[in-house]
Amino acid sequence: MNPVVGRAPGERVATEGLVPSLADLHARGASQQPTYADPAAVDAAVAKLRTMPPLVFAGECDDLKDKLAAVSRGEAFLLQGGDCAETFAGVTADNVRNKLRVLLQMAVVLTYAASVPVVKVGRIAGQYAKPRSSDLETRDGVTLPAYRGDAVNGYEFTAEERAHDPHRLVEVYHSSAATLNLVRAFVTGGYADLRQVHTWNTDFVRESSVGQRYERMANEIERALTFMQAIGADPDEFHRVDFHSSHEALVLEYEHAMTRIDSRTDTPYDVSGHFVWIGERTRQLDGAHVELLRHIRNPIGVKLGPGTTPDDALALADRLNPENEPGRLTFVTRFGAGRIRDGLPEVVEKVTAAGVDVAWVCDPMHGNTFEASSGYKTRRFDDVIAEVQGFFDVHRSLGTWPGGVHVELTGDDVTECVGGGEELAEIDLAHRYESVCDPRLNRVQSLELAFLVAEMLRQV
Ligand SMILES: O=C[C@H](O)[C@H](O)COP(=O)(O)O
Ligand SMILES: C=C(OP(=O)(O)O)C(=O)O
Ligand SMILES: [Mn+2]
């Protein structure tokens, strides 16, 4: 049997002995898992997934780990962004291109304005499962299971759609494959060529002042590229970019089935994405998610909310990266604008004092969510910026490196977060609120964030 391919039903699982079994993981009382009615259908979905080719290759995961090691050394900056929850219906060329385009624009702003190499990672091609505060949702007196992402159930508020369906896990694989295929084509096939800096901005420049600001910067970049070509630089150097996929490793059946033994090193990798992270709600030290992820060799992240103590962070680092391998572990802090300045310093201080090698990244979204009077979940652009500013200030005062930002965004002109240069108000939210889970920055807000972060980076 080829150990990279997995097993046929009934055969030994290729990862046996190197990764805990699904039964062992569930025995830990895993939180935030689907509740499936039909165990045979779950087995069939898992068996099918085990036969599917990897979505990413272990060597690519190692490349990203090397880049994240540069982040942890203070030599690069991570830009990680995308939807809160991807949907199967959202796998269209326009949608994928628009998300990639805004990330490329943001990366160019950060690289050019702050002169720092930017590691680009999408919340894309696998971000289909959501932890929720409540198992149930009630509308007009009707109570149904909460929406847990397209990986688990449908968004439509009917009993049929909200039932947890294991076959959806196979659909996650196919949707991720289609998305990643397009992303790979875009980033290597010319769309991401640095000489396209202007093209990414068309249909945008006239409409917003941030688009115009970007346009001025793109003119400067173009002149610099022309100069470099004139002095003999290889134009192929500008042709492609490195871009990696990431998602929260939440549904154990999916992540376990996609964990394979790398034939180069005989070690396990979760080949469903380059980088996977453990959410704030599933990072229990003895929990199933920490147990699974401590066995895989991908670069991994852990979200740290405002309740995190220095000892929690140290214990997680010890469990997930006992050899202190650079680039292996990223702590994504999401304290909220009001708590970051008080809560973050002692965590960073003690982790640093213990000699733990980690990349520190700021998620300025998940600690700043509130419900507008209209009922929409939203976030204030000013709170997002205030948390990033707090993150930079804390790291500057401790002499540590603010290694990146992790944001929920989209390339479309949605109206989900309030504020920003367009001064979106709560009353505007209904106009184009399309997220099926958390509110995302739209294209203008995302680019504004990039310019503001570039200024903060220049001052580090
Ligand atoms: O994306 C993160 C979580 O799934 C989300 O913030 C939970 O939101 P809820 O409180 O509406 O369940
Ligand atoms: C669920 C998420 O975040 P957290 O685990 O930080 O709440 C998320 O990133 O969508
Ligand atoms: Mn979210």
Q: How would you describe this structure to a colleague?
A:
Belongs to the class-II DAHP synthase family. Keywords: Amino-acid biosynthesis, Aromatic amino acid biosynthesis, Cadmium, Cobalt, Manganese, Transferase. With 460 residues, the chain is an alpha/beta fold. It has a single domain (22-192, 240-458), classed as TIM Barrel (Alpha-Beta Barrel), CATH 3.20.20. The chain contains 13 helices and 14 strands. α2 (39-51) runs parallel beside α6, α10 (310-320) packs across α11 and α11 (340-353) runs parallel beside α12. The longest helix has 22 residues, at 93-114. The N and C termini lie far apart (52 Å). The relative contact order is 0.15. The model is unreliable at 1-11 (pLDDT under 50). The structure holds erythose-4-phosphate, phosphoenolpyruvate and manganese (II) ion (MN). Phosphoenolpyruvate binds at residues 84, 131, 248, 279-281, 303, 334, 366.
Task: Give short descriptive properties of this protein.
transferase; disordered N terminus; 13 helices; 14 strands; 460 residues; binds erythose-4-phosphate; binds phosphoenolpyruvate; binds manganese (II) ion; TIM Barrel; alpha/beta; DAHP_synth_2; globular; two-stranded antiparallel ribbon; eight-stranded parallel beta sheet
Layout: helices, strands, pairs:
Layout: H1 22-26, H2 39-51, H3 58-72, E1 77-82, H4 93-114, E2 118-123, E3 136-139, E4 142-145, H5 159-162, H6 167-188, H7 209-230, E5 244-248, H8 252-257, E6 259-262, E7 267-270, E8 275-278, H9 288-295, E9 300-304, H10 310-320, E10 329-333, H11 340-353, E11 359-362, E12 369-371, E13 377-379, H12 381-398, E14 404-408, H13 443-458
Parallel strand pairs: 1-2, 1-14, 2-5, 5-8, 8-9, 9-10, 10-11
Antiparallel strand pairs: 3-4, 6-7, 12-13
The structure holds erythose-4-phosphate, phosphoenolpyruvate (PEP) and manganese (II) ion.
Catalytic activity: D-erythrose 4-phosphate + phosphoenolpyruvate + H2O = 7-phospho-2-dehydro-3-deoxy-D-arabino-heptonate + phosphate
Keywords: Amino-acid biosynthesis, Aromatic amino acid biosynthesis, Cadmium, Cobalt, Manganese, Transferase
InterPro entries: Aldolase_TIM, DAHP_synth_2
